[in-house]
Amino acid sequence: MGHVGSKSNLNPNNNNRSSRKSSSSISKKHSFRYANGRRFHNDENSMYFLPNDEEEVDRLQLEHFLFRYIWEDNFSSPIRDLIDKGDAKVLDVGCGPGTWLLDMSTDFPRSSFTGVDMSPIYPGDIKPRNLTFHTANVLEGLPFSDNTFDFVYMRFLMTAFTEDDWQNKVIKELIRVCKPGGWIEIMEGDLVFNPEGPAGKRLMDAYRSTLESKQINPKIINHLQSILSSTETLSCLTTKEKSGPIGTWAGRIGELSYQNFSQTLRALKPVLCKLMECAGEEYDELMEEFGRECNSNNTNFVHFRFFAKKVE
Fold first, then answer.
1. Domain total in the chain
2. What range does the domain containing 194 cover?
3. What does UniProt give as the signal peptide span (predicted)?
4. Letter string b/e over residues 160-188, b meaning 16 or more CB atoms within 10 A of that residue's CB
5. Within-domain flag for 29
6. CB 270 within 8 Å of CB 40
């Protein structure tokens, strides 16, 4: 897409804001719970513990444009000709506010796009005509028949699933709803900064320990390749890796990366403070030091895309 490489498109403030405000989620109070001034999902069957309020939606929108810029595209699977030609069906699992789908459905108007998320924070009425949303949790099964979609996409849900979920539920469900000959793509990041200074390591160790306490493997990225390659119904498995900078040392892109990560760590402040047994002021000081470390160490992070074809 020609617009991907433009730095002006790194600013999410001019994209999808009106769509988000129209979300039907506001009236669905039973879908949410509130704690420490933030809003969270209220699904007892999910261990995902990041917020889903307006502040988090802003972060997720920033994250979308950030990674689209780094990857220079919204996907890596070889499906461009198919969805450009039209009549293809695309599914985004765990779509959140639907930013990826709003982007894709606008770029490929001849194909149809569907998003599912356990929290109804996606747009309600103001959206492209070729885009629909459903409230669903992949762990409870997707509300679609077998072999429905030509392309099934999912990203940044490593903090929501146990390793057993990945192995025995999530990937199997993505494959189930994908058509034979269709593609699935999973994008995840490594929860390790390169390098990690003392402040960054203390924060990330606490984050990783929190995940482990929920039986979530913070190093699942190291196992997805083997899980996917051992799945007999998949072929043509490919893994791509990208590194992104964190900190103002790398200019605007690094600044936005730091903003994305720091907003996540600030959202986790009540949880991580309790685990680290530190006061709020000490946590804030750690965050400030983490920013300085990123700049002095030229810190980077790594993320991956795994994509494979469902056997025909």
1. 1
2. 50-310
3. none
4. bbbeebbbebbbebbbbbbbeebbbbbbb
5. no
6. no
Strand partners, 178: 149
CA distances from 257 to 69, 250, 291 (A): 11, 10, 11
Determine contact, residues 141/123, Cβ cutoff 8 Å: no
Residue 86 lies in a domain: yes
Helix (H, G, I), strand (E, B) or coil at 93: strand
Over residues 117-159, the pLDDT tens digits come to 988 888 888 899 999 999 999 999 999 999 999 999 999 999 9
Residue 42 lies in a domain: no
CB 178 within 8 A of CB 152: yes
Report which of 92, 6, 70 is spatially closest to residue 242, judged by C-alpha positions. 70
Query: What are the pLDDT digits (tens) for 35-86?
Result: 777 767 677 666 666 677 788 888 889 999 999 999 999 999 999 999 999 9
Domain holding 250: CATH number?
Answer: 3.40.50.150
Alpha helix (H) ranges present in the chain? 17-21, 54-71, 80-85, 99-107, 163-165, 171-177, 198-213, 221-229, 252-267, 269-276, 280-297
pTM higher than 0.85 for the full model?
Answer: yes
Q: Residue 121: helix, strand or coil by DSSP? A: coil
* Residue 15: inside a domain: no
Count of Cβ atoms closer than 10 Å to residue 73 Cβ: 14
Q: E strands within 102-177?
A: 112-117, 131-135, 149-155
Rounded to 5 degrees, what angle do the CA atoms 225, 226, 228 make?
Answer: 70
3-state secondary structure of 186: strand
Distance CA 302, CA 275 (A): 26
Q: Are 178 and 184 in contact (CB under 8 A)?
A: yes
> Helix 269-276 vs helix 252-267: angle between axes, to the nearest 10 degrees?
70
Alpha helices in 17-53 (DSSP H): 17-21
